[in-house]
Amino acid sequence: MAKHPASSKKAAPDQGRGARPRRREARRREARRDSVVVIGLGRFGSALAMELADEDTEVLGIDHRAEVVQSLSGSLTHVVRADSTKEEILRQLGVHEFERAVVGIGTDLEASILTASLLVSFGIPNVWAKAISEPHGRILTQLGVHHVVYPEHDMGQRVAHLVRGRMLDYIEFEDDFAMVKTSPPEDIIGLTLGNSGVRTRHGVTVVAVKRPGEGFTYATADTVVEEGDTIIVAGHTRQTERFSELQ
Question: Which residues have a Cβ under 8 Å from the Cβ of 26 and sit 6 or more positions away?
């Protein structure tokens, strides 16, 4: 009968030793919850990493080229020269503990796919990856990458819209929806948005207005659009394009 309490006391230290590594692991994950690992520091990856760093986000940058790593040393929180296709190397760097990761590798398709596959296998909740073609993007999606981006294609499409019309800026979302920054057409100048019939006649919604020398403000039905204003409109892609082309 006396042996039972003794065995219970011996179990406690073992549980404590097992709990400490788990607590350390939890603390490391918590510290990296708001951090991002960016793998592949070419033009896309380095620009993204620098933008994140400018916004006070901790960034671990990884690239296999010594000159790239050297050029970004001191600009990012950490920057490391490493082969991202090797699982043991990524684990040594603690990449598996991050909750957000970006694969900026483009031209080396094998490295892009292998790296993305490892990040997905780690169970990282949010993985972004750059694709340079539709087939590349399909493979990344099939691997389980959460967000596939096409920087060159998207930028080319955006610039084409800006070149074609009177748009000052253009953002297209999925499901045929877009937001356009443009100048107001003559038929709504001097009218409140409620009386202008802009939504009924043009199928778009004016969501913000900017006066010269001022910042953007949210638009309401009582907002009067004046000559020289800049407006942001939202709606189906083709309707926003047509609206921006009105003279």
Answer: none
Angle between helices 109-121 and 134-143 (to 10 degrees): 20
Picking from 228, 231, 223, the residue whose alpha carbon sits closest to that of residue 191 is 223
pLDDT digits (tens, 9 = 90+) for 11-70: 444 455 555 655 555 555 554 567 999 999 999 999 999 999 998 999 999 999 999 999
Q: Are 115 and 84 in contact (CB under 8 A)?
A: yes
In this prediction the pTM is 0.67
Tokens of 223: 């907002």
Q: Exposed, middle or buried, 246 (CB in 10 Å: 0-12/13-18/19+)? A: middle
CA distance readout (Å), 47 to 15, 115, 214, 224: 46, 20, 29, 39
Entry field: residues in the chain: 247
Q: Within 10 A of 68 (CB to CB), how many other CB atoms are there?
A: 18
| DSSP summary character for residue 125 | S
